[in-house]
Amino acid sequence: MRIATNDLPQANDLDLVIRTVEAVGTGAQTDQDIADAVGEYDRRQGRYYRRAAEILGFLEKAGPNQSVLTRKGQQFLRAPDRARDDLLAGAVLSARTMQRILPLLEDHRDRGVQRQQLESFLENVTHTTASMAGRRLSTIIRWLTRIGVVKELEGRLFIQNLPEGVGIVEYPLDEPLFPETRDLREYQDIARRVRSAGNDIQVLVDANSRERANASHTMLTRLVAAKIRAAGAIPKCNALVDLAAEVGGNDYFFEMKSTTDGNSRSQVRRAIAQLYEYRYLQKSPAAQIVVVIERPLPTELNWMVDYVVNDRRLLIAWDGDGRTLHFPDAVRDQLHFLA
Predict the structure, then answer these.
(1) Domain 184-338: which topology?
(2) Taking the model in full, what pTM does it have?
(3) What distance in Å separates the CA atoms of residue 10 and residue 23, rounded to the nearest whole number?
(4) C-beta separation of 48 from 77 below 8 A
(5) Do 227 and 207 touch, CB atoms closer than 8 A?
(6) What is the block-wise mean pLDDT of the chain (339 residues), using blocks of 10 residues?
Protein backbone atom coordinates (compact mmCIF):
# COMPACT_ATOMS: atom_id res chain seq x y z
CA MET A 1 0.00 0.00 0.00
CA ARG A 2 1.49 3.27 -1.10
CA ILE A 3 1.23 6.33 1.11
CA ALA A 4 -0.73 9.09 -0.63
CA THR A 5 1.11 12.20 -1.76
CA ASN A 6 -1.22 14.29 0.40
CA ASP A 7 0.06 12.46 3.48
CA LEU A 8 3.66 13.56 2.87
CA PRO A 9 4.33 16.82 4.74
CA GLN A 10 5.43 19.86 2.74
CA ALA A 11 5.66 22.38 5.58
CA ASN A 12 9.27 22.42 6.77
CA ASP A 13 8.97 24.39 9.99
CA LEU A 14 7.20 22.59 12.83
CA ASP A 15 7.12 25.79 14.87
CA LEU A 16 5.02 27.38 12.12
CA VAL A 17 2.78 24.30 12.15
CA ILE A 18 2.26 24.99 15.87
CA ARG A 19 1.47 28.60 15.03
CA THR A 20 -1.06 27.31 12.51
CA VAL A 21 -2.83 25.32 15.23
CA GLU A 22 -2.79 28.37 17.50
CA ALA A 23 -4.21 30.52 14.69
CA VAL A 24 -7.12 28.16 14.10
CA GLY A 25 -7.66 28.10 17.85
CA THR A 26 -8.19 31.87 17.76
CA GLY A 27 -10.51 31.90 14.74
CA ALA A 28 -8.48 31.39 11.57
CA GLN A 29 -10.22 29.01 9.15
CA THR A 30 -9.12 29.42 5.55
CA ASP A 31 -5.75 28.83 3.90
CA GLN A 32 -5.30 32.59 3.55
CA ASP A 33 -6.20 33.15 7.21
CA ILE A 34 -3.49 30.66 8.16
CA ALA A 35 -0.96 32.16 5.75
CA ASP A 36 -1.54 35.60 7.25
CA ALA A 37 -1.27 34.27 10.80
CA VAL A 38 2.02 32.40 10.40
CA GLY A 39 3.85 35.06 8.38
CA GLU A 40 3.97 36.79 5.05
CA TYR A 41 2.98 33.76 3.00
CA ASP A 42 0.59 33.17 0.14
CA ARG A 43 -2.48 30.94 0.19
CA ARG A 44 -0.53 27.97 -1.16
CA GLN A 45 1.86 28.05 1.80
CA GLY A 46 -1.11 28.39 4.12
CA ARG A 47 -2.53 25.23 2.58
CA TYR A 48 0.76 23.38 3.19
CA TYR A 49 0.76 24.32 6.86
CA ARG A 50 -2.91 23.49 7.30
CA ARG A 51 -2.33 20.05 5.76
CA ALA A 52 0.72 19.53 7.98
CA ALA A 53 -1.41 20.20 11.07
CA GLU A 54 -3.99 17.72 9.73
CA ILE A 55 -1.29 15.07 9.27
CA LEU A 56 -0.38 15.58 12.93
CA GLY A 57 -4.02 15.16 13.92
CA PHE A 58 -4.40 18.69 15.31
CA LEU A 59 -6.78 20.03 12.64
CA GLU A 60 -9.54 18.64 10.47
CA LYS A 61 -11.64 19.99 7.63
CA ALA A 62 -15.08 21.34 8.48
CA GLY A 63 -15.84 22.16 4.85
CA PRO A 64 -14.12 23.42 1.69
CA ASN A 65 -11.17 25.59 2.74
CA GLN A 66 -12.32 25.55 6.36
CA SER A 67 -10.28 24.14 9.25
CA VAL A 68 -11.23 23.44 12.87
CA LEU A 69 -9.39 22.01 15.86
CA THR A 70 -9.66 18.32 16.62
CA ARG A 71 -9.92 17.11 20.21
CA LYS A 72 -6.19 16.37 19.98
CA GLY A 73 -5.58 19.95 18.80
CA GLN A 74 -7.60 21.35 21.69
CA GLN A 75 -5.60 19.24 24.12
CA PHE A 76 -2.37 20.51 22.57
CA LEU A 77 -3.35 24.16 22.95
CA ARG A 78 -4.34 23.67 26.60
CA ALA A 79 -1.08 21.92 27.49
CA PRO A 80 1.91 23.66 29.17
CA ASP A 81 5.08 24.03 27.10
CA ARG A 82 6.82 20.84 28.28
CA ALA A 83 3.71 18.76 27.69
CA ARG A 84 3.35 20.39 24.27
CA ASP A 85 6.78 19.11 23.29
CA ASP A 86 5.77 15.56 24.18
CA LEU A 87 2.42 15.85 22.40
CA LEU A 88 4.14 17.24 19.32
CA ALA A 89 6.68 14.40 19.29
CA GLY A 90 3.92 11.83 19.70
CA ALA A 91 1.94 13.40 16.86
CA VAL A 92 4.93 13.38 14.51
CA LEU A 93 5.65 9.73 15.28
CA SER A 94 1.99 8.85 14.68
CA ALA A 95 2.14 10.10 11.08
CA ARG A 96 2.06 7.19 8.61
CA THR A 97 5.15 8.35 6.73
CA MET A 98 7.22 8.55 9.91
CA GLN A 99 6.06 5.10 10.99
CA ARG A 100 7.14 3.63 7.69
CA ILE A 101 10.59 5.20 7.98
CA LEU A 102 11.23 4.36 11.66
CA PRO A 103 11.99 0.63 11.12
CA LEU A 104 14.54 1.47 8.43
CA LEU A 105 16.31 3.84 10.82
CA GLU A 106 16.13 1.24 13.61
CA ASP A 107 17.75 -1.42 11.43
CA HIS A 108 20.66 0.93 10.74
CA ARG A 109 21.00 2.25 14.28
CA ASP A 110 24.78 1.73 14.39
CA ARG A 111 25.83 2.81 10.92
CA GLY A 112 23.09 5.27 9.99
CA VAL A 113 21.15 5.69 6.76
CA GLN A 114 22.21 7.77 3.78
CA ARG A 115 19.74 10.31 2.42
CA GLN A 116 19.79 8.65 -1.00
CA GLN A 117 18.69 5.37 0.55
CA LEU A 118 15.76 7.08 2.23
CA GLU A 119 14.85 8.91 -0.97
CA SER A 120 14.74 5.64 -2.90
CA PHE A 121 12.63 4.07 -0.17
CA LEU A 122 10.13 6.95 -0.24
CA GLU A 123 9.89 6.76 -4.00
CA ASN A 124 9.08 3.04 -3.74
CA VAL A 125 6.42 3.14 -1.02
CA THR A 126 4.68 6.48 -1.58
CA HIS A 127 2.87 8.18 -4.43
CA THR A 128 5.68 10.55 -5.28
CA THR A 129 8.31 11.06 -7.95
CA ALA A 130 12.08 10.94 -7.77
CA SER A 131 12.27 14.72 -8.00
CA MET A 132 9.68 15.20 -5.24
CA ALA A 133 11.09 12.51 -2.94
CA GLY A 134 14.14 14.59 -2.05
CA ARG A 135 12.06 17.63 -1.08
CA ARG A 136 9.60 15.59 0.95
CA LEU A 137 12.47 13.81 2.70
CA SER A 138 14.01 17.14 3.69
CA THR A 139 10.77 18.04 5.47
CA ILE A 140 10.56 14.63 7.16
CA ILE A 141 14.15 14.91 8.40
CA ARG A 142 13.53 18.42 9.74
CA TRP A 143 10.50 17.18 11.66
CA LEU A 144 12.29 14.16 13.13
CA THR A 145 15.32 16.30 13.99
CA ARG A 146 13.12 18.93 15.63
CA ILE A 147 11.63 16.35 18.04
CA GLY A 148 15.06 14.83 18.74
CA VAL A 149 14.47 11.40 17.17
CA VAL A 150 17.05 11.76 14.38
CA LYS A 151 20.54 13.22 14.24
CA GLU A 152 22.51 13.74 11.03
CA LEU A 153 26.25 13.08 11.12
CA GLU A 154 28.55 13.15 8.08
CA GLY A 155 25.68 12.70 5.66
CA ARG A 156 24.07 9.82 7.55
CA LEU A 157 20.93 9.82 9.66
CA PHE A 158 21.01 8.10 13.04
CA ILE A 159 17.97 7.28 15.13
CA GLN A 160 18.03 8.51 18.74
CA ASN A 161 16.13 7.46 21.84
CA LEU A 162 12.52 8.54 22.05
CA PRO A 163 11.76 11.79 23.89
CA GLU A 164 11.14 11.06 27.55
CA GLY A 165 7.46 11.95 27.43
CA VAL A 166 6.62 9.73 24.45
CA GLY A 167 5.40 6.39 25.76
CA ILE A 168 4.39 3.95 23.02
CA VAL A 169 4.18 4.61 19.27
CA GLU A 170 0.84 3.32 17.99
CA TYR A 171 0.72 1.93 14.45
CA PRO A 172 -2.29 1.21 12.20
CA LEU A 173 -3.26 -2.47 11.99
CA ASP A 174 -2.19 -2.79 8.36
CA GLU A 175 1.26 -1.23 8.78
CA PRO A 176 4.19 -3.65 9.28
CA LEU A 177 5.84 -3.37 12.66
CA PHE A 178 8.91 -5.31 11.44
CA PRO A 179 9.19 -4.97 7.65
CA GLU A 180 11.85 -7.24 6.16
CA THR A 181 12.20 -6.46 2.45
CA ARG A 182 10.69 -2.93 2.55
CA ASP A 183 9.42 -3.60 -0.94
CA LEU A 184 5.98 -2.22 -1.74
CA ARG A 185 4.65 -5.76 -2.17
CA GLU A 186 5.39 -6.52 1.48
CA TYR A 187 3.23 -3.61 2.65
CA GLN A 188 0.48 -4.61 0.23
CA ASP A 189 0.59 -8.25 1.38
CA ILE A 190 0.19 -7.35 5.06
CA ALA A 191 -2.68 -4.99 4.21
CA ARG A 192 -4.36 -7.87 2.32
CA ARG A 193 -3.94 -10.23 5.27
CA VAL A 194 -5.56 -7.72 7.60
CA ARG A 195 -8.44 -7.08 5.18
CA SER A 196 -9.08 -10.79 4.64
CA ALA A 197 -9.45 -11.32 8.41
CA GLY A 198 -11.57 -8.19 8.80
CA ASN A 199 -14.57 -9.54 10.75
CA ASP A 200 -12.47 -11.72 13.04
CA ILE A 201 -10.03 -8.88 13.64
CA GLN A 202 -12.84 -6.56 14.74
CA VAL A 203 -13.90 -9.10 17.36
CA LEU A 204 -10.31 -9.30 18.61
CA VAL A 205 -9.93 -5.51 18.62
CA ASP A 206 -13.08 -5.13 20.69
CA ALA A 207 -11.92 -7.79 23.15
CA ASN A 208 -8.48 -6.19 23.38
CA SER A 209 -9.99 -2.79 24.08
CA ARG A 210 -11.86 -4.23 27.04
CA GLU A 211 -8.79 -6.05 28.30
CA ARG A 212 -6.57 -2.98 27.98
CA ALA A 213 -8.94 -1.09 30.27
CA ASN A 214 -7.83 -3.43 33.06
CA ALA A 215 -5.47 -1.71 35.53
CA SER A 216 -3.13 -4.71 35.77
CA HIS A 217 -2.87 -4.90 31.99
CA THR A 218 -2.01 -1.21 31.82
CA MET A 219 0.61 -1.59 34.55
CA LEU A 220 2.29 -4.53 32.74
CA THR A 221 2.28 -2.67 29.44
CA ARG A 222 3.88 0.43 30.93
CA LEU A 223 6.45 -1.65 32.80
CA VAL A 224 7.56 -3.56 29.70
CA ALA A 225 7.53 -0.39 27.57
CA ALA A 226 9.81 1.32 30.10
CA LYS A 227 12.25 -1.61 29.91
CA ILE A 228 12.22 -1.42 26.11
CA ARG A 229 12.90 2.31 26.19
CA ALA A 230 15.71 1.82 28.71
CA ALA A 231 17.30 -0.60 26.22
CA GLY A 232 17.35 2.21 23.64
CA ALA A 233 14.54 0.70 21.57
CA ILE A 234 11.12 1.97 20.49
CA PRO A 235 8.02 0.37 22.03
CA LYS A 236 5.24 0.07 19.44
CA CYS A 237 1.72 -1.27 19.43
CA ASN A 238 -1.39 -1.51 17.29
CA ALA A 239 -5.02 -2.30 18.04
CA LEU A 240 -4.11 -6.00 18.44
CA VAL A 241 -0.46 -6.17 19.50
CA ASP A 242 0.06 -4.96 23.07
CA LEU A 243 3.74 -4.20 22.46
CA ALA A 244 6.34 -4.84 19.79
CA ALA A 245 9.98 -3.81 19.67
CA GLU A 246 13.26 -4.45 17.93
CA VAL A 247 15.86 -4.88 20.67
CA GLY A 248 19.47 -5.77 19.93
CA GLY A 249 18.62 -6.79 16.37
CA ASN A 250 15.81 -9.14 17.47
CA ASP A 251 12.08 -8.58 16.95
CA TYR A 252 9.63 -9.22 19.79
CA PHE A 253 5.85 -9.36 20.14
CA PHE A 254 4.49 -9.05 23.70
CA GLU A 255 1.06 -10.02 24.99
CA MET A 256 0.13 -8.88 28.50
CA LYS A 257 -2.27 -10.89 30.64
CA SER A 258 -3.68 -10.09 34.05
CA THR A 259 -3.81 -13.35 36.00
CA THR A 260 -5.04 -15.00 39.15
CA ASP A 261 -4.28 -18.47 40.47
CA GLY A 262 -7.58 -19.57 39.01
CA ASN A 263 -7.18 -18.27 35.45
CA SER A 264 -3.42 -18.46 34.83
CA ARG A 265 -3.56 -21.52 32.58
CA SER A 266 -6.33 -20.19 30.34
CA GLN A 267 -4.71 -16.75 30.13
CA VAL A 268 -1.33 -18.16 29.07
CA ARG A 269 -2.98 -20.38 26.47
CA ARG A 270 -5.00 -17.45 25.17
CA ALA A 271 -1.92 -15.25 24.95
CA ILE A 272 -0.04 -17.87 22.91
CA ALA A 273 -2.92 -18.28 20.47
CA GLN A 274 -3.26 -14.53 20.03
CA LEU A 275 0.47 -14.00 19.49
CA TYR A 276 0.65 -16.68 16.80
CA GLU A 277 -2.17 -14.95 14.94
CA TYR A 278 -0.61 -11.51 15.32
CA ARG A 279 2.73 -12.79 14.07
CA TYR A 280 0.99 -14.25 11.01
CA LEU A 281 -0.92 -11.06 10.26
CA GLN A 282 2.31 -9.08 10.55
CA LYS A 283 4.17 -11.59 8.34
CA SER A 284 6.99 -11.78 10.89
CA PRO A 285 7.70 -15.51 11.37
CA ALA A 286 11.11 -14.90 12.93
CA ALA A 287 9.81 -12.52 15.62
CA GLN A 288 10.02 -13.86 19.15
CA ILE A 289 6.80 -14.25 21.11
CA VAL A 290 6.70 -13.13 24.75
CA VAL A 291 3.85 -13.87 27.16
CA VAL A 292 3.92 -11.45 30.11
CA ILE A 293 1.71 -12.33 33.07
CA GLU A 294 0.80 -10.46 36.20
CA ARG A 295 2.17 -12.92 38.76
CA PRO A 296 4.20 -16.14 38.90
CA LEU A 297 2.33 -19.27 37.91
CA PRO A 298 0.98 -21.26 40.88
CA THR A 299 3.09 -24.26 41.87
CA GLU A 300 0.80 -26.79 40.22
CA LEU A 301 1.25 -24.99 36.88
CA ASN A 302 5.05 -24.76 36.92
CA TRP A 303 5.03 -27.32 34.11
CA MET A 304 3.62 -24.62 31.83
CA VAL A 305 6.91 -22.72 31.92
CA ASP A 306 8.62 -25.81 30.52
CA TYR A 307 5.82 -26.17 27.96
CA VAL A 308 6.08 -22.54 26.82
CA VAL A 309 9.89 -22.36 26.74
CA ASN A 310 11.04 -25.84 25.73
CA ASP A 311 8.12 -27.26 23.80
CA ARG A 312 6.68 -24.17 22.11
CA ARG A 313 10.05 -22.37 21.95
CA LEU A 314 8.39 -19.19 23.17
CA LEU A 315 9.25 -16.76 25.96
CA ILE A 316 7.50 -15.97 29.22
CA ALA A 317 7.98 -13.36 31.94
CA TRP A 318 6.05 -12.28 35.02
CA ASP A 319 5.78 -9.23 37.22
CA GLY A 320 7.32 -9.33 40.66
CA ASP A 321 6.34 -6.11 42.38
CA GLY A 322 5.15 -3.63 39.76
CA ARG A 323 8.76 -2.62 39.07
CA THR A 324 10.63 -5.85 38.36
CA LEU A 325 10.12 -8.55 35.74
CA HIS A 326 11.26 -12.14 36.19
CA PHE A 327 11.76 -14.93 33.67
CA PRO A 328 13.28 -18.44 33.51
CA ASP A 329 17.07 -18.69 33.37
CA ALA A 330 16.69 -20.54 30.08
CA VAL A 331 15.52 -17.37 28.31
CA ARG A 332 17.83 -14.89 30.04
CA ASP A 333 19.84 -14.27 26.86
CA GLN A 334 16.71 -13.33 24.94
CA LEU A 335 15.01 -11.30 27.69
CA HIS A 336 17.94 -9.75 29.56
CA PHE A 337 16.69 -6.25 28.70
CA LEU A 338 13.56 -6.87 30.82
CA ALA A 339 15.58 -7.50 34.00
Answers:
(1) Trna Endonuclease; Chain: A, domain 1 (3.40.1350)
(2) 0.92
(3) 19
(4) no
(5) no
(6) 92 95 95 89 91 97 92 97 94 96 95 95 91 93 96 94 91 96 93 91 88 91 96 96 96 96 95 96 97 95 96 95 92 96
